[in-house]
Amino acid sequence: KGPFLTDFSHLLLPKPKHINMSTLAKSLVCRIQLAVNALSRRRRNMSTVGAAARFHAATSAESLPDPHNVSNKLDDETIEAIVTRLEERGEDPVFRSLFNYFDMIPSDARVLEVGCGTGVMSRALAKHPGFEGSITGVDQCIPFLEVAKKKAEEAGCDMSVTNFIEGDAHDLQTSLTNADLKDGFDVVVMHTLLSHATHPKTVLRSAAEVAGSGALLFVMDGDYEGLSFGHSEKWIGRQMDQALVEATFKRPDIIRHLVANIDRCGWSIKDSKVECVAEIGKHASYWSSFAECYAPRVKASGLLDADIVDQWLVDQAENIDEGKFFASCNYYTLVAQKQVNENSK
User: What's the gap between Cα 16 and its chain centre?
Assistant: First the structure.
């Protein structure tokens, strides 16, 4: 028997003593329809299995690393693409809505942003109504920092209290000056950083080392394991979601693990917020630009066939035109406070 052959023997009915032809006809039609549906399902399942096999074969190859994790080693073209993405994202109202913790930052705080990128968050905080403190942004990518300084100056930020320096999030003490370390920072911000970090716990401990007594920590990141784009073909949609996550994030599920582990890193959670970032219908900017920026990396990684990725991008553009676009992911803000060192009491 071939994979698509169906056993129709169950359609044979025992001969009743009194045959009602109408009932018999209806029963036969119903059973035939069930058999046809079963055959159709088998064919679809075989198609899906074949596609899944091709996907598995593709993913068995070594994929490219999270670009943000190795931002200090990227080529100029990739850096330019990410800078464009970061700046466009920074102007997007959807993304800016995730700055909802700014009002919780003391107005005169000495703020350290770890993994500042092109300085989008730092600039936004510097211009936030009522904020009169200082901001130091740290990042490992020099081209990002050059953009950060230029954009901050263009935005009219007070550069005497806005500074951007090269450094490793895993070893902040080495990167910062003695003046920075003297009293410690009042606030540490990690805005979409830990999902890209090699060792998130080390980053959190490093931040605790340079934070002052009673300092606040704001960790804002997505639960990218739940990232989902709508697509008419379910298996294509699911595999593209998975490929985008794998190509973009070193630790896509980090936010799920912080609650159980952050207290081992010198911090105690005090509060949390959650926001579903979704775009539906014809209005899409945040997730559509995400797809355009990182889908090419899915192809370059060999996670999916190039023609599948290209068609997926075309389908998403058509979904926007037809008002059928859907993309969603939950973002969480964890507010923590530096733990009291028992030895300092």
Answer: 63
